[in-house]
Every structure is written in structure tokens, then in C-alpha cells.
TrEMBL record:
Membrane topology: Multi-pass membrane protein
Catalytic activity: ATP + protein L-histidine = ADP + protein N-phospho-L-histidine
Protein name: histidine kinase
Single GO cellular component term: plasma membrane
Lineage: Bacteria, Bacillati, Actinomycetota, Actinomycetes, Pseudonocardiales
UniProt entry tagged with the keyword Lipoprotein: no
Domain of life: Bacteria
Amino acid sequence: MRYRGTLAGRITLVCLAVAGVAVIVAGLVAARLIRTTADNVLQSSLAAQADVLASQLDETGIGNRLGVGKVADVVRGQGISVVVRRAGGQPAGDAVAVQAAAKAGLAARHSTRVTVAGTQYLVETRVIGTRGAGFALVLPARSAEATQRALVRSISLALGIGLLVAALAGFFSGRLLGRPLRRAALAAGSLRAGRRDVRVPVEGPREVAEVAGSLNSLADALAVSEARQRDFLLSVSHELRTPLTAVTGFAEAIADGVAAGDDAVRAGQTIQREASRLERLVSDLLELARLGADEFRLDIAPLDSGALVRDCAEVWQLRCAREDVRLLVDVPAGPVPVLADARRLRQVVDGLAENALRVTPGGAPMVFSLSSDGVSARLSVRDGGPGLAPEDYPVAFERGVLNARYRDRRPVGSGIGLALVHGLVTRMGGTLTAGPAPEGGAAFTITLPLAASVPQG
């Protein structure tokens, strides 16, 4: 039962089924051909003997019992009966043969088959001379049936051998085809157990080779994904540890009485600031985890993206001034209606602005830019910071990648923010791209579909 459920078992069964159908069809066709051919061959042989006898007899021979007796002795050993009609006389011979000859008609040359008392006979009649003399050779058709049965037995033996060969071919073909699939199954089990160095030889038929190649690609992808997850967790752990260390240290100072008066106030402010940082980090992690879930809902509606950018600029103007960064705003005077979730789009712009301000040095610009091409709106946040290496732009939105590459060289975030804003923009039906900015730093551009109009509230 277990073998029947395997690929080798199924291939064997299919081969047997195909061979069985072929055997049945071939048997039916062969039986028909054997029957027809045997009859034709026997009839042709009987006709040839009748022609030979007709060429050796004349009316005198027909009238001579000795001559007819010799003829009868020649063919009787083959199971053939001879019916003779002399000139002006009645047919003479075996009674049943006479009936068969009479049905066939002795007055003319015939090659025919007749039935007498439920039995079929092959009859060959010949006319000798001009006075109506003649003879008939009568052979029971069962002689042909014996030949047919012998041929059928031979063909059945050959077909049986063919079935056996088909079964063996199916078995060995199934084993051969199933071997790479069994290797792939073992490799998949190893992957499930946690191994990532498993590889399957890419060989065999094209479909099987594709399975092996896909499994190898999956192993590579899992290895890369898990490596990125480890790096991401390391960066998040680092981001969590820094504020936690500050909170713990200053809390211990207050608890031990080391920090008092103004020092206690500064310690409390530090604790509050680091706690807020922790809260933002945890919130981003939760948002990123919920982003791919079905219950994550967005309120997509028409909104004026120009008004939203101007509101953001008012808030970020003060923060930029404290960091000696010039905030430039390039927004059309009229409304630019887009389809988006207003709260989430504001979250995206704030997240991009926070990243930009973190890397922009004093005196350099940060830019909010909005434009429209009649089909979509393009909202960009650009900075005058150091920018990114060309190979980093395509992976800028993967979790923790930029954090891992730049945390030892410049101020970086948790590695979550860009992944989060990219997911939010994608869920709103837009796109978020990264590239170099004219100001020398990086530009992050949001593209959203335009709405027909903005509802008046």
C-alpha cells in the first residue's frame, strides 16, 4: 500500500494502465486481423488446390471413378471433402459436403463460404468441360479457427511479455525519477530543522531540476533573511540598551541620593527623554509588526497634500532652527488632492523628516517639495547631509540594513523607521523611492495617486 502511494508506484501503475489499454486495443485489432487473414489464407489455399486439380482433370477424368478417387485421396488428408458432378448426373460425395456444394452452386466457378446445420464451410467449385461436369472442394471453417487460436495464443504470450516489460520499465523509471525528489524532500526536512547549508544537485528531468533549483534558492533566501533578521535584532537591541542604560543609571542616582536639586531635575528630564525614545521605538516595532496583518486598517480618502506639507513644515521649522538647519518648502499655491490616509501620511512625512534632520549638519538645508504631473503627486523630503552610497539606495527600506552599515560613522535611527514608512506608503497604494538629492544628501520621494477633489469640511 505504501509503494502504491509513491511516485514510483504511480508511474508503474500508469505504465501498466497504458500498456494494458494498448494490449486490449492491439488484441482486438489483432484478433480481427487474424480471423480475416486466416480465412483469406485458407480460402486462397483451397482455391489454389482447386485450380491445380481443375487443370489436371477433364470430363473423362470426372467420369472415371478411379481418377476422382485419386483426387479425393490427395486432399482428404487435409480435411477437405470432394464433391463431384458428372455430366448429366447428380453431385456425389459426403452428404454434408454435397449440401454445402449445392448451396455454393456447382454450375459456375465460386469461392465462397456457406453454412450448413450451423457449421460454416469454405467452398471452391470448378466447372470441367462444356457439359456441366465439375467438382467442389469443401473445407470446414473450424480448420481456420484452429489456426486462429494458435496465432492468438502466440500474440497473447507476446502481449503478456509486453505487460511485464512495461511494469518493470515503470518501476525502474519511477525509482529513477523519484530519487532526486526524495533528495529534495530530505533537504526540505533539513531546512525545516534549521540547517541552511543544504543543497540539492540540480539534475534529472527539467521539472525535477527546477524543484531542486527552487529549493536551493529557498535555502539561500532563508539564509540571507535570517542573517538580516539577526542584524536587525542586534541593532534594535543596541537601540533599546542605550536609553535603558541611561534610564537605569539616572534612576539609581536619584534613588541613592547622589542626584539632588538641579542634578535630580536634569536626571528626571533625561529619564523622561529616554523613556519617550523607548516608547517611540516600541511603537514603531508594533506598527511594523501589525502592518502586514489583515486587521491593519487605513482610512483612505481625498485630502489636500499641499496643506498637509505646510502643516508639517510649521512644526519642523522650530526643530530645524534649533539644529541650525534651513528648512525650505516648495509647495504649489493651490490644492493638490491625493488619495491617502491623512494620519498615516503625516506619520510618513514626520518619519522621513526626522531621519533627514538627524544627518543634516548645521547650515545645510532640508527641503519639503511637492509637485504634480496631472496623474499623481510627488512629495519629497531631501537633506543636505552626507547621503548614501549608490548601492545602499535599493536596500534603504529593508529593516536594519542602513543602521548596520552606518551606525559607526554617523547618527542613525533604529533601522525600523524607513521600513515602517515604506510599508505605510505601499499600503496606501503609493510608492516610496530613495535616491541622491540635489542638495548633496538623500531624497525620499512619495508618489500617490491624485484624487478628483478634496471634500470641503
